Amino acid sequence: MTAPLSPAVYLVVSGAGPTADIALLLTLAGEAGWTVCVTATGAGAAPLDVAQVAPLSPYPLRLDYEKPSPLWPPADLVIVAPATFNTLNKLAAGIADSIGLSLIAECLGLDVPTVVAPSLNPALARHPRYRASVEQLRSWGVQVLEGPRSESPGSMRPWSEIVRAGGAQLRRPLVERAGAAHSSGRGWVEQEPPQRSPDPPQAAP
Ligand SMILES: Cc1cc2nc3c(=O)[nH]c(=O)nc-3n(C[C@H](O)[C@H](O)[C@H](O)COP(=O)(O)O)c2cc1C
Questions:
Q1: Which of 23, 52, 79, 195 is most buried, judging by how many CB atoms fall within 10 Å of its CB?
Q2: Share of residues in the chain with pLDDT > 90 (%)
Q3: Domain ranges of the chain
Q4: Predicted local distance difference test score (pLDDT) of residue 147
Q5: CA triple 159-161-167, angle to 5 deg
Q6: What is the rounded average pLDDT of the residues 171-188?
């Protein structure tokens, strides 16, 4: 029997406070058996602790456009966490002015399941453009995990909840996520042909 493949998850961080703690998400993702590839939006690289994060991924971090671009496996899932006001609005507008936004845009074009966890203050979370952007993304099938409206609508959901939401997206039948991952072509944001690491060995029953 062929060993199950480890899902490849593209993690996009942006310029918000929780990016400094992104190693927590990578640790949970590792426990879930995911292979995580890390990238950033324009302001996302600054708060990222590269020395802490790089050893948690088998693939090079992509913090800028490079030629040739480092090879990553095709994405099975995209997680954008934390997503700033700026990044979420750009995503909804189809703007791709950073490596992170370009990769998300390409993955959306390939119907790769995408989970977005915004981090912003209550005033920004009530902004009409932001509300419209959330609706736009949801209409494309993107899962936007907003904070509880009544308390603090912009506060980011816990890392464990974000990983759980990603796991649920990965469990959706492939046919439901038509075109996801496995049809991914080689865009100018180059991706590696399918060549995945197997899941970690499972305990005998
Ligand atoms: C320490 C710090 C924390 C920030 N936290 C947030 C935040 O939680 N949400 C947000 O929308 N912007 C936040 N900002 C502002 C964004 O970094 C800024 O709007 C930036 O242009 C976003 O760019 P990006 O979307 O490419 O990451 C923060 C800035 C700093 C310096």
A1: 79
A2: 75
A3: 8-175
A4: 78
A5: 105
A6: 52
Q: Which of 53-67, 91-105, 111-125, 161-175 is predicted with the least confidence, judged by mean pLDDT?
A: 161-175
Question: Ligand 1 atom 7: the closest Cα is on which residue?
Answer: 16
Chain segment 8-53, per-residue pLDDT in tens: 999 999 999 999 999 999 999 999 999 999 999 999 999 999 999 9
Atom index in ligand 1 nearest the CA of residue 41 equals: 26
- CA dist., res. 95 & res. 41, Å (int): 11
pLDDT at site 155: 83
Please indicate whether residue 118, judged by its CB atom, sits closer than 6 Å to ligand 1.
no
Q: How far does residue 70's CA lie from ligand 1's centre (Å)?
A: 27
Report which ligand 1 atom has the smallest distance to the Cα of 86. 25
**Shortest-distance atom of ligand 1 to CA 90:** 25
Q: Which amino acid is at 197?
A: S
CATH 3.40.50.1950 fits 8-175, yes or no: yes
